[in-house]
Request: fold
Amino acid sequence: MSLAVDNLRVYYRTLKGDVQALDGVTFTVADGEIMGLAGESGCGKTTLGKSLIRLDGRMQHIEGTVSLDGEELPIGDDRAMNAFRFRKVSIVPQYAMSALNPIRKVGRMISELLDARGVSYDQTRPELSRRLALVGLDDGVLERYPIELSGGQKQRVVMVLSTLLNPSLLIADELTSALDVSTQKAVAEMLVEFRDRAFVKSTIVITHDLSILYQIADTILVMYAGKLVEKGPAADLTTDPRHPYTKLLIGSLPEVGVRMSEKRLEGISGRPPSLLNPPSGCRFRDRCPLAFEKCVEEPPFVEIAPGRFAACWKAA
Amino acid sequence: MLEGSLMLSLQNVSKVFKTGTFGGAAVTAVSDVSFDIRPGEIVSLIGESGSGKTTVGRMILRLTTATGGSITFGGQDVATLGRRELHGYYGRVQGVFQDPFSSYNPVFKVDRIFEMVRNAYLPGLTRAEWSMRRQRALEDVGLEPADVLGKFPHQLSGGQLQRLLISRALIIDIEILVADEIISMLDASTRIDVLNILGDLKERGLGVLFVTHDLALGNYLSDRVVILQRGRVVEMGPTPKVFSNPVHPYTRMLLACVPQLTSKWEETPRAFDEAAAPVTLQLVDDDHYVER
Reply:
C-alpha cells in the first residue's frame, strides 16, 4: 500500500473563521496506481494535494494521518517534512509553467535544487539527460532561461525535475489544463510513461477534466465541497457513475460529435456551499435532483460494490 | 452610422508583427485569412496557441490593426472608422475575453461595468428604463440580479463574472460578439451553461465569433468552423461537414488529440512539417474548403 490517507482534515484560517476545505477524507493509492482527483474549483482537490507535501501558513492540520510506504508523514511539521519532499513526495504545482526561477538557467536551477538535497548534480547529469531526451528535450534546455522555452517545454522540464529522485508519490496539479490539445495529450501520456518506467510509484493527477482522467488514470476520486463523493476504476466510474454529482458532472461534458441543435446538455444548477459554515448532512443536497429526507444526515463514504466507493444514500 | 447588411467580413486579412531591436525581424501572426460572420451564426475559430486566433479577434475589435487585407462590417472598412464611428461600431460589436477575473477592476463593485456602458451608450434612459433593461440583460444570461449586483468581483464565481460580461455586451443590443476562449477558465459544470447562453443568443440573431482551442466545444456550438494553423486557414466549412469528414491532416491530428469519455486515445504521430509553403484553399465538398 503506497499511500494511505485516513480521516484527513485541513482547514484554512481566515478572519471570518475556519474554511473547512478538506473535511475528513480517507482513501488509499496503491503502488503503481495513477489516481485522478476531480471536482469543481473550490472542492478541496488542490488543498488535498498540497496537504500531502506542504501546508502553507494559512493551512491548519486539524486531524488525520497520512502514511507513505508504511511510514507516517509528519504533514503538520513543516521542518520534519523536508526529509520527505522531493525524495519521497514530489509535486508538479498548478501553473508549473511559472514555477521555474526566471533568473536562473534551467540547468543551474536543477543543480541548486539537487545540492539542497545533498545529491550530486554531476552524478545525476547522465540520468537527467536521458529523461529529458525521453520527453523530447535535448540538453540544450539546460543552458536556457525559462523564458526561452514554450509552455509545453517548461511543463516537461518541471515534470522531469520533480521526478528526478524517483519519488514514491507524485502529485500533478492541473498539469495539462493550460495546454493545447496536442501538447496536453503528450504531457498526459508522459505521466503514464513515467509510471511504467518506475520513475514514480504512485501518482495523483488533480484536474477538473474528467475526460483526461479517463485517458490516463487507473482510478478516479471525485470531490465535492471538501468531502469525497465517489471513487472507482476510471472506466467504471465514467461509464456507470453512481453518485448523482458524478452523473451530472459527466452529463455536462460535450463530446466531439454532440451538437447543441441536436442534444442540449445541461450544467449543474446552483453553486457549491460556502465552506466557512458548511451545511450539515450531504453537502450536495441543495443541488441534487434525487435529494430526499434522509439527506439531512451525512452519508458515509462506503464501498457499494467491489472497488466502488460512494457517499450517497441512494447509491447503494 | 453603419447601415446595410450587418455582416462582418474578413478579406485576406494579415498581421505582421515587427520584432527585434529595430523592428528588423518580422513575425507573421495571421496570413491571408478570409471568412464571414452573419447575424444568427456562430463561427468557431479553432487553433492552438500561436495560431493567431486571438490576433484575429483583436483585429475585429480594432484592438490592433491589420497589416493587410480588410475587415468590413456592414460594408464599411473597420480600419477607416473615425473616433465617432468607432464608438458606433463598439455599440454593435463587442468582445468578451478569457480571464473573467482580470476583466474587472477589483476595487469597484461589478455594477460599474454596466454604469460605464450606460454613460457611453445609453445616457438618455430614465432610471426605471435602465434598470428594466439591466434586469433583462441579466436574466438573458441566467443571472438573478440580487445575486450579483452590488457585489465585488472577488465575491462572485468565474462563471458568474463571465456571464456578467456577456450581459454587459448584450445590454446595448450588439450584433456581433467576439468570444475569445471565454470558457477555458470555467468549471465543466458552468462551462456548458455559458455555451448554452451563446446558443440561445444566436437564435435571437446574434453573430458570434467563438475563439477556442477545444474542438468538442466548437463542435457543440458552432454553425461553421475555421481551423487556423500558424496564422493560416487550413480548413473551413459547415461544422458537421468538417467534423464528420476532416480532410486536412492538422484537423485530423487535433480531433485525434481531444480527450473523450467514450474512446481512448490512439497512437497518433506528432508530426507536422514546419514548411510554410504558399497554399490555396480548395473546395472539397459544397462549401467545405481545405488547404492543399
